Amino acid sequence: MSNTPIELKGSSFTLSVVHMHEAEPEVIRQALEDKIAQAPAFLKHAPVVINVSGLENPVNWPELHKIVTSTGLRIIGVSGCKDASLKAEIDRMGLPLLTEGKEKAFDLRPLSRQRPASRRKTLIPSQKRD
After folding, report:
1. Span between the terminal Cα atoms of the chain, in Å
2. Which domains does the chain have, with CATH numbers?
3. CA-based nearest residue to 55, from 101, 19, 30
4. Which residue of 12, 31, 53, 109 has the lowest C-beta tally within 10 Å?
5. Order of strands across the sheet with 16-19?
């Protein structure tokens, strides 16, 4: 038995990601209901991540959130969000902003500390000469 009341451990889960390509609430609702009808046992009350990278600004996040949850899906996070005001709105609603593992990492050092591409060293394997 552990000496502490909790343990914090890492774990991985397979989750469905709903990629939004349309921000019109009624279109989203109908598309989700159609998808859920195809596999109700699997999708009813399913935890999902909402990817908003395909949406144009501005996005009415409270309305989209309401539409998605009205279908029975459980939003556990949002990915693909690049817009600062949308990020703030999602955060205010208490949802985590997630980064997908395959998203490109960015160099966060100040530009003055990054080496220009022309000055970066390129390693070329040496060729054996006879």
Report:
1. 67
2. 20-99 (3.30.70.260)
3. 19
4. 12
5. 16-19, 47-51, 74-79, 97-98
